[in-house]
Structures are given as C-alpha cells and as structure tokens.
Write a structure and sequence with these properties.
heterodimer; A: 261 residues; mainly beta; 13-stranded antiparallel sheet; 2 helices; 13 strands; B: mainly beta; globular
Chain lengths: 261, 384
C-alpha cells in the first residue's frame, strides 16, 4: 500500500459481520478487499510530491516532499516522508510503521538537533503540515481499520462506481464516516466525502490523472482536498514514481532517519 | 532533491569522486536582543548574525558532510565563533557506518535537560539552551542489529564550552578566561563512550557509558576575583534512558550515575508530556509538559529543579507554535520563566521569538549572578 492517500487494505483476518444489513456489509467488505488485493505485490515505491495549500482568499503556499514506501509483509506498510521545502523544515523526516490494529509507531528526525524523536501517533485527526489532509488521510490504510457498508452504484467522473460507506473502527478518528466511490472496472478510488463527528460534510477528496505502473498498479497523480467548512483547499501533485527499487526494511528503521538525505 | 545552488563548496566536494548526489544549503539568521534588566556597563541591545552552511556529497559507499557555522556579534566577543559542527567522512558497510572527523549526535529523551547527552560540548554562548552543540573530533561507529543499535565513540581531544563575555548575557559580569583540567593531558585528553538503544512496542530504552572529561565545567572566580576559571573534571558514568510513548501520554526518563573527580554523583530527569488534540475546538494541539531534574554535582544550579510548561501548536499553514515554561528549584529560591514562539513567514524564512526571565531570592545562588540577564530576542532565519 502506498503511504499517501489511497484508502487501501492489506490481508483480511476474521471479521465478524453485524447481523443487520449483512448483505451490504458483506459486499462493502468484498469491494474494499478486492481494491486492496489489486494493489498487493508492488513491493516498494518512491515518488515526489508538491503540496499546494490554498486559503479561502486564494493565497497559496507550497511544500516539496519525497515519499518512500515499503509494502508490509505481516504488519502494515512502512513509510518515510522527507521534507525538502519550505526552508525551516528542510531535512526533517517522518517515519511510520503502520499497524493493522492499535497505534502506528512513528518517529521524527529533527536535523538541527540530530535528534530522532519517537512521537505519539494518536493525533490522527490532526492536520498534516497545516494542510487539509489529516494524518489519518495520508497514512497507510488497512482493512481492519474500517467497517464497510455498500450503499449503491453511482457514476463519478463518467465511470460506473460502487459507493461504499467506510466507518472508522478507531474512536480517535476525526470522522463519523466516509463515503467512498470506487470505479467498478479497475477498483480505483475516485472520490471520498469525509463526514465529521457531528455527521456534517467536512471535506471532499477527488482523485485524477491515474497512471498504471508495472502493468497493474494504479496511482493518481492529482489529489484535491476541499474543506467545505473552512473553504481551504490542498492539492497533492505526484511525480517521479518508481517501483521495486530494491529498498528493504533496513531503509525504514529508525536509525535510517539519521542518514537520510 | 534540490539542485546544487552554490558553486564553490560543490566544486571541492565533486573532486572527491564520481558525482552521485549532493546538496548545499545556506541559512542566514540575523538576531536582535533586548536585555531589559541589564546591569550598568553590560549590553542593552544585542545584534548578531549567524551563517550556517550545510553540504553533503555521496559517492559510492562514502559520504562527506559539512555543517559550518559562523557567528558574529556586535558587542559580545564570547559569541563570535567559526565552528565546523560537522565535518566528517563516512564509510557505510552492510550493518554499520564508520565516521571520521568532526561529528554530532544526540543522546537522551527528556525536554528540559539531557543529562545523558555527553558526546558533544554545548555552544552555550549561542543562547539556545542546550540545543546548540560543538562538533566532537572523533572516530565513531554506528552498528545496526535486529536487537538494537550500538554506537562506539573515540573522541580524540576536548572541546571547551563557549561562554558569553562579561558584558553579555547571561553572564555573571566576568569573563571566563582560564580553563583548568583535572586530567594532566588537559585539552589533549581523549574520551571513550558507547551507547546501546532499542525499542519494544511502546517502550524505548538506551544504556550508555562514558569515560573522559566532563562537558560541564565548574565555574569559580580567579584568586583576585577579576575573572572566572572553568574547571573540567574527570568523569566516569553510566547513563540510562527510557520512554513510554502512550496514547496520549508520554513518559520520559534519563539518568546519569558515576563519579566525577572520584566522588559519586547521580543526575536524572523524569518527565511527562500529555497532549490535548483539537484543543479549544480548533485543530490546535495543546501539550502539557512536567519535568523534574535532579543533580548532585557541584556544577548544578540546584539539586532539584521542577519545570512545568505548555506547548501550543496551531497546525496552520505557517506552523505557528508557542512554548511557555517555568522552572523553579526545590527551595523556591531560583526560577526561570521562558516563553518562545515561532512562525513561518514564507517559503524561505521563519521568525523566532525567545524570552527568558531569571529570578533569585537571595545572593550566593547560581541564578543570583544572572538575575539581571533577562532577555527578549527576535531571530529571522532565512533559507537559501
């Protein structure tokens, strides 16, 4: 699973289904599982990302970030994010070991102090780098982190899609639910609506510019998040994708943070 | 990766081997300070600028890294400095890295003070608490194993602490003019150190050992009381570190045990950090920090200090954050109130505000001499 933003899933362990609406739960889970399955096996990936933050007055600011992801074997994915700009965070690196259940392990490297700091990962609802993406939107998603409910079929971006409700298991999530549109042909995320804890529409995330890599792995180059409550927007523009670069778990250990450039 | 933007250091580095990757960055940080309670004859307004050049170059299994600091101060000669915080060559092997040259590392877990952080000398005149360090001229090895990480250090010579001049702040009004050493080799004496660190679940642990010259000197007046001596003693220590990364409470511990000039001592910091996410109905994080410090060495300002603070992070596009911290000794005779704020101005600059207010209830205490050294400073960091 890639670190950034695809709501994807790995492996499926015995989930018990609620007795009511079992059929739609079962179908929702099947869709989420298929989406995950289709993205399994990419081993590792690297990419660069430009994050453009725009406020309600149209003023914008940018960050440049490099991403490295290693597909998890028994646990979730390992991911590393390196900040190239703005200047005051240059060289800062963020390492995350995603867990299927419980809190992820996370570390931050502060280059001025040469300090690797273990940090709490409970701030999943908080903004990532002041953007409209929360930590939970950009961290690797595992099947076990949601329960599912297939609602109906709908057309998005001219594509026939499944509309599935994702309900976060973790009560620290900032969301009561997410409405997720997945195209039926390729099982790619097309759109997500995030509802806050009061069940009001908070944000909409749109995926565009999909490319296929290694003949089967789809990645969207443009992700646009709009916050309906504040009017702020964040766009992620990906480029320079590379897969199966030969990275190993050693490249994602906390001691690797000190050597990262 | 950013393209190489400055030409001369790159040219030097490129002569080392086939170009693979490298980068050069420059930071310029002008600073103005105001010392509201300055004593007669000492600086009222401080003006300084610090230049930092960061460069590295990778070729094959080698990396050359340079972090150069040049600091100029209008009036405080003690703050003037040219320093290679890092200037090393690294050779990477499959399970370890070997470093030779001037290098920095960080040991510790706590926030208010790091008693186990014994490798690098403090650049105390930088006036950034314990955060600014000098490079250690050394041969060091970082080993990586399934069960944890091991560091071995040989530090070939001693680095003296930097001090503000007598007319600067903080200072007791006198210059530190002479370094005295317990070890006969003085500045040429070497140190050895090692640290093993590991983690399991929510727990991080480390244990370390050090034999060499203590980084923190004992400051005493010269015989005629016209200046100050810095006396560096022999120290043999074992350090312990632990951190529990809870949800949302962090518990931190570090302690140093051993002998200094043959006399036993203990020093420790125990801390707690609790974060309220989404504070005040905003996307803000409010961190509550409480730490207790203990130190039986004669250099310590008091045997026990207690610190409590608040950290407010706005999580906005400008990364605005505030920190307020109050420290007091166990007799409530000495205290320090610190307030810090920082905010990004644009993609290439940020603003930092720092202020510190000292108080001592009577004379003869460590803080008595610096009670007139309150400071408010403003720094702009410009990144190129």
């Amino acid at each position: 699973m890639k670190f950034l933003p695809l709501i994807l899933i790995a492996g499926l362990t015995g989930l018990s289904l609620p007795s009511t609406a079992a059929a739609s739960s079962e179908k929702g889970l099947e869709i989420a599982t298929e989406l995950d399955k289709r993205d399994t096996g990419f081993k590792d990936s690297t990419s660069t990302m430009v994050m453009v933050l725009s406020d309600q007055h149209g003023q914008s600011t940018q960050r440049a970030i490099r991403n490295r992801t290693l597909e998890g074997s028994s646990e979730g994915d390992l991911s590393l994010v390196i900040f190239d700009s703005p200047g005051d965070v240059r060289g800062t690196a963020f390492l995350s070991h995603t867990k299927k259940a419980g809190s992820d392990d996370q570390w931050l490297f502060l280059p001025a102090l040469k300090r690797v700091k273990r940090i709490a990962s409970s701030n999943k609802a908080g903004p990532f780098m002041g953007s409209e993406f929360a930590y939970e939107d950009i961290s690797s998603q595992e099947v076990e982190k949601y329960t599912y409910n297939y609602l109906r079929d709908e057309k998005v971006n001219g594509l026939d899609c499944f509309l599935v409700e994702y309900d976060p298991v973790d009560r620290k999530s900032g969301y009561s639910r997410q409405l997720v549109w997945i195209d039926k042909k390729e099982y790619r995320l097309q759109k997500i609506e995030f509802y806050d804890r009061k069940n009001s529409l908070l944000k909409t995330l749109s995926y565009a510019d999909y490319n296929k890599f290694l003949g089967k792995y789809w990645r969207a180059d443009t992700l646009s998040m709009e916050n309906h409550q504040t009017g702020k927007k964040t766009q992620l523009q990906f480029s320079d994708w590379a897969f199966q670069t030969g990275m190993t778990e050693k490249d994602f250990q906390k001691n690797a943070l000190k050597r990262i450039k | 990766m950013k393209p190489l933007s400055l030409s001369w250091p790159t040219a030097i580095l490129l002569t080392c081997g086939p170009a693979v990757s490298g980068e050069v960055n420059l930071t310029i940080s002008p600073q103005v300070s105001y010392f509201p309670s300055h004593a007669e004859g000492t600086i009222e307004y401080g003006k300084s600028v610090e230049l930092k050049l960061d460069a590295y170059h990778d070729f094959d299994a080698y990396r050359a890294e340079l972090e150069l600091i040049a600091r100029a101060d209008a009036d405080d000669k003690g703050r003037r400095l040219v320093e290679a915080r890092q200037a090393y060559m690294r050779r990477s092997f499959s399970n370890f890295d070997l470093y030779i040259g001037q290098r920095q590392t960080f040991w510790g877990k706590a926030e208010s003070r790091n008693v186990v952080d014994v490798i690098n000398q403090s650049d105390a005149a930088a006036n950034q608490g314990s955060e600014a360090k000098l490079g250690a001229p050394s041969l060091s090895l970082d080993g990586y194993f399934d069960f944890g990480d091991l560091q071995l250090w040989y530090i070939s010579r001693f680095r003296e602490r930097t001090f503000n001049d007598g007319n600067g702040h903080p200072s007791s009004g006198l210059n530190v003019t002479t370094s005295l050493y317990e070890r006969s080799e003085g500045k040429e004496a070497d140190d050895i150190a090692a640290r093993f660190s590991t983690f399991s679940g929510d727990w991080d642990f480390a244990v370390s050992g050090f034999q060499g010259t203590a980084r923190e000197p004992l400051i005493t007046p010269t015989q005629d009381s016209s200046a100050l001596n810095a006396t560096y003693m022999l120290q043999e220590t074992i350090g312990f570190e632990a951190q529990f990364t809870g949800d949302p409470t962090l518990l931190k511990w570090e302690s140093l045990h051993g002998t200094q000039s043959g006399a036993g001592f203990d020093a420790a910091v125990a801390g707690l950090e609790y974060t309220l996410y989404g504070a005040f109905g905003q996307v803000w994080d409010l961190g509550l920090i409480a730490e207790g410090q203990y130190d039986t060495r004669p250099q310590a300002a008091a045997e026990r200090f207690y610190s409590a603070g608040l950290r407010l992070v706005l999580n906005d596009a400008k990364d605005t954050s505030f920190l307020a911290l109050m420290s007091q000794d166990q007799k409530q005779e000495q205290s320090l109130i610190a307030f810090e704020a920082s905010r990004r101005l644009n993609d290439w600059s940020s603003l930092e505000l720092r202020s510190q207010f000292y108080d001592a209830k009577k004379s003869g205490l460590a803080f008595s001499g610096i009670a007139d050294d309150d400071v408010i400073s403003l720094t702009i960091n410009m990144f190129f």
